[in-house]
């Protein structure tokens, strides 16, 4: 008999488990026979309640449905079994995602139980045409989960049939007149004015609007998950949370939250494509294909004839889905500007902002009154209140740029420090979110950052690594660490994470101090609106994100090696040899992304008639039969794409050259076109 392994090596047990046992799963905490499974994926817990109603009114857990229930349960266990994974151990997050997709697929059939006659036939009579229709459903919407569950359609259908009395309508209108603001019914609304009055009255009287003290985007916002639990919760296995679900006809009286001043430039070239992502559709299809593995192991679900439709659906999927998009590369001017602004703001105001907040926290008085006088330097910045009282977006952003509110300036500071660290370290968001004071390692050789890699792991075992940390980034992180530590020492609730920001003190009661979970998007947005970061030709602002900043330093480094004169790099290049820096860049950034950066810089060099890219420009003109003037007026994206293609094919390459200069090691980038390709062109 095999001995039990220690908890730390649980993932190895997946390699030792019998292929024949499909009633075990490391993420399930109770027995296979239970009607409700208690599951744990790392730190995330969830329940799977099998007591759902089928088409004949019976429960899936009824004795008459035992065969279908056991097939569903074993199919869920299969998703983490070596027969499905090929013996590879998956992380808790990956397993949880796979189980979620499997529940969605099973729910597709449960929601259409009447059509498939599940209680009588199970899945045995699902046809190839039915599977094709399922694939069509998966590819029909940008959000695949919405396509499966149709939450908005079901909510509207349900609310169209609710009933209330005239007395209910009268009383609700008297106490909540905003709910009846229907003078301009939305174009495209499928309900009459009277039906909307009835629906909103019913929602309010039955508790389906958030409580007034809850901070939301509307004074009356529908509690989506609770309402959907009422409508279809008894028929599905999965949770009913839907990100981005809009209910324009039932969410009433919008409240300005002042998140962004302008529309954002898409962070990926796929963001403007409303089709479903090919990668996500493939993940669902993979769940369906695992039913073949299930059948081979005695789990009766779809027949092989029905599953054959998956083989024929490839062309359909290809036409109706979009490829994984490329992340946008920030223009050089934007990348250089935001790093410069971030460093300047941190040096000018960072320490004063943190020390003033801590001084306020020590008083324990209501922070909204600023019980201690604003220090002269911060008064010069513009601070005169804790948070805004602006009632319009226009007024809020005027106040933001005047520096009127301490909370907003702290948000800008967090954004500045995040930009500094994210740019200089080229790390993933998931790696930065969980940094603590212990992550900053001070050694005789300098500062290092200790963190768990976001990828390249085995199961739950994350690779813990050390990476060189520039002094400016280390000092900035230590400043944030001081804030979280001292707030905790004062007895307030404080998150251990470095980027945990102060409470907003929105409510009218204590506590007024403490820190909450990191919110990178909010920090970035405040920073970009405060400094009025550049916009594109459509007036959309370049709101930075972590994955964009990972490329920033590489772009600045390469630009400096081509044009020179990048002042902000002195904070980094003064400490580390450029050759070591470039090796770090190539280790941190995937080759595909690095090619994109090289191509972006090459485009700027070509447009500047720089000698470094003269051969490359001539080769492009020769290849495409155009003049240099033609090349200069081509859209930037086309030139970048052409250069990237040459780099990928090996016809051209970019190499750094390192050499000794009067101030130590220096470098430049050389753009080469290989002679054999030049002759062929």
Question: Can you walk through the features of this model?
Answer:
- InterPro entries: DNA_brk_join_enz.
- This is Integrase.
- GO terms for molecular function: DNA binding.
- This protein is mainly alpha-helical and 681 residues long.
- It has four domains: 7-124 and 276-320, no CATH class; 151-254, no CATH class; 332-531, no CATH class; 590-673, no CATH class.
- It is built from 30 helices and eleven strands.
- A three-stranded antiparallel β-sheet has the order 7-8-9, with helices on one face.
- Strand 7 and strand 8 form a beta hairpin.
- The chain is globular and about 85 Å long.
- Residues 14-20 have low confidence and may be disordered.
Question: Can you summarize this structure?
Answer:
It contains 30 helices and eleven strands. The model is unreliable at 14-20 (pLDDT under 50).
Report the principal-axis shape.
Answer: globular
* Sheet with the most strands, sense and barrel status: 3 strands, antiparallel
Task: Give the radius of gyration.
Answer: 29 Å
The total of helices stands at 30
The helical percent reads 40-55%
Number of strands: 11
Keywords:
681 residues, mainly alpha, 4 domains, three-stranded antiparallel sheet, two-stranded antiparallel sheet, 11 strands, globular
Write the layout of secondary structure elements.
Elements: H1 13-16, E1 36-41, E2 44-49, H2 66-78, H3 82-85, H4 92-111, H5 113-116, H6 118-121, H7 128-138, H8 144-149, H9 151-159, H10 166-175, H11 193-205, E3 218-220, H12 224-232, E4 252-254, E5 276-277, H13 278-296, H14 304-311, H15 314-320, E6 321-322, H16 332-363, H17 376-381, H18 393-402, H19 406-425, H20 429-433, E7 440-443, E8 446-452, E9 464-468, H21 471-489, H22 520-530, H23 546-560, H24 570-573, H25 578-588, H26 591-607, H27 614-624, H28 628-633, H29 636-649, E10 652-661, E11 664-673, H30 675-680
Parallel strand pairs: 5-6
Antiparallel strand pairs: 1-2, 3-4, 7-8, 8-9, 10-11
Organism: Ralstonia solanacearum
Protein name: Integrase
GO molecular function: DNA binding
């Amino acid at each position: 008999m095999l001995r039990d392994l220690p908890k730390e090596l649980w993932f190895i047990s997946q390699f030792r488990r019998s292929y024949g046992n499909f009633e075990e799963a490391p993420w399930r905490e109770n027995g296979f026979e239970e009607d409700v499974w208690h599951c744990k994926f790392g730190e995330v817990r969830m329940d799977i309640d099998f007591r759902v109603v089928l088409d004949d009114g019976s429960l899936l857990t009824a004795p008459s449905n035992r065969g279908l229930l056991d097939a569903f349960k074993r199919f869920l266990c299969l998703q983490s079994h070596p027969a499905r994974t090929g013996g590879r151990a998956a992380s808790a997050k990956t397993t949880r995602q796979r189980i979620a997709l499997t529940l969605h697929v099973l729910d597709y059939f449960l929601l259409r139980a009447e059509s498939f006659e599940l209680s009588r036939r199970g899945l045995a009579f699902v046809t190839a045409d039915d599977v094709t229709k399922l694939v069509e459903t998966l590819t029909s919407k940008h959000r695949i989960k919405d396509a499966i569950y149709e939450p908005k359609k079901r909510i509207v259908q349900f609310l169209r049939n609710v009933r209330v009395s005239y007395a209910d309508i009268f009383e609700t209108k008297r106490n909540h007149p905003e709910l009846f603001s229907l003078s301009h019914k939305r174009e495209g609304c499928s309900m009459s004015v009277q039906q909307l009055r009835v629906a909103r009255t019913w929602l309010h009287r039955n508790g389906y609007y958030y409580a007034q003290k809850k901070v939301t985007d509307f004074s009356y916002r529908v509690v989506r998950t609770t309402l959907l639990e009422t409508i279809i919760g008894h028929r599905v296995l999965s949770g009913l949370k839907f990100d981005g679900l809009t209910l324009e006809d039932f969410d009433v009286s919008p409240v300005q939250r002042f998140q962004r001043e302008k529309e954002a430039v898409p962070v990926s070239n796929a963001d403007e494509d409303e089709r479903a992502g090919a990668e996500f559709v493939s993940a669902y299809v993979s769940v369906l294909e695992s039913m073949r593995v299930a059948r081979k192991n005695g789990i009766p679900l779809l027949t092989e004839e029905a599953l054959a439709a998956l083989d024929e659906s490839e062309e359909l999927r290809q036409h109706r889905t979009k490829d994984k998009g490329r992340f946008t590369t920030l223009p050089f001017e934007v990348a250089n500007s935001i790093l410069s602004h971030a460093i300047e703001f941190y040096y000018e105001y960072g320490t004063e902002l943190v020390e003033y907040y801590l001084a306020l926290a020590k008083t324990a008085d209501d922070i909204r009154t600023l019980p201690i006088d604003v220090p002269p330097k911060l008064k010069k910045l513009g601070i005169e209140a804790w948070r805004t009282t602006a009632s319009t977006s226009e007024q809020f952003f005027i106040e933001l740029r005047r520096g009127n509110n301490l909370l907003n300036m702290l948000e800008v500071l967090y954004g500045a420090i995040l930009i500094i660290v994210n740019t200089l370290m080229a790390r993933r968001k998931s790696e930065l979110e969980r940094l603590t004071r212990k992550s900053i390692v001070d050694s005789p050789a300098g500062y290092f950052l200790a963190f768990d890699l976001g990828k390249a792991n085995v199961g739950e075992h994350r690779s813990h690594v050390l990476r060189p940390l520039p002094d400016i980034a280390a000092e900035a992180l230590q400043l944030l660490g001081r804030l979280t530590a001292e707030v905790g020492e004062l007895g307030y609730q404080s998150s251990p994470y470095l980027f945990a920001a102060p409470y907003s003190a929105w409510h009218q009661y204590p506590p007024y101090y403490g820190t909450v979970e990191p919110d990178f998007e909010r920090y970035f947005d405040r920073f970009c609106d405060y400094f009025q970061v550049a916009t594109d030709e459509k007036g959309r602002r370049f709101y930075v994100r972590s994955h964009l900043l990972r490329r920033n330093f590489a772009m600045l480094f390469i630009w400096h090696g081509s044009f020179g004169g990048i002042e902000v790099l002195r904070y980094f290049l003064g400490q580390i040899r450029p050759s070591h820096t470039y090796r770090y860049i190539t280790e941190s950034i995937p080759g595909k992304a690095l090619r994109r950066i090289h191509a972006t810089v090459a485009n700027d060099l070509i447009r500047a008639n720089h000698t470094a890219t003269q051969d490359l420009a001539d080769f492009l003109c020769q290849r495409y039969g155009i003049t240099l003037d033609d090349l200069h007026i081509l859209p930037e994206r086309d030139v970048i794409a052409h250069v990237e293609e040459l780099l990928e094919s090996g016809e051209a390459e970019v190499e750094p050259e390192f050499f000794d200069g009067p101030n130590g090691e220096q470098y430049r980038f050389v753009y080469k076109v290989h002679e054999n390709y030049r002759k062929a062109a």
